[in-house]
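Box 3.1 A note on notation
Throughout this textbook, protein chains are presented in two layers. The first layer is the amino acid sequence; the second is a token string describing backbone geometry. Keep the layers aligned when reading.
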Amino acid sequence: QVQLVESGGGLVQAGGSLRLSCAASGMIFSINVMGWYRQGPGKQRELVAAITSGGSTYYVESVKGRFTISRDNAKNTVYLQMNSLKPEDTAVYYCNADRRPLVAGLTDPRGSWGQGIQVTVSS
């Protein structure tokens, strides 16, 4: 089992920035992909960004150029730097750790999940 603890959410005005952190513990050797999903009000959960153990990254089109995902392997932590935030970025953000290839998580989210953290962007 992998345990994930998120931090860094909150309320910010449009155009502002936030950085989310997710610390992993437990069976971290089994992790291939770490990612951030989000679920806005009345919306389905979507994969926002992900990074593989080899450093490859994925971003959903709506956040490209604004969000950056990174990982610190020494700290077993993944970060999501979110800049130029928009009201439509408002959602609960979930950290995820998956042992499968990145492409699998695009349509079939599985693995270990954090508790979720609220990000609210005011207009």
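The radius of gyration is 13 Å. The first strand starts at residue 2 and ends at 7.
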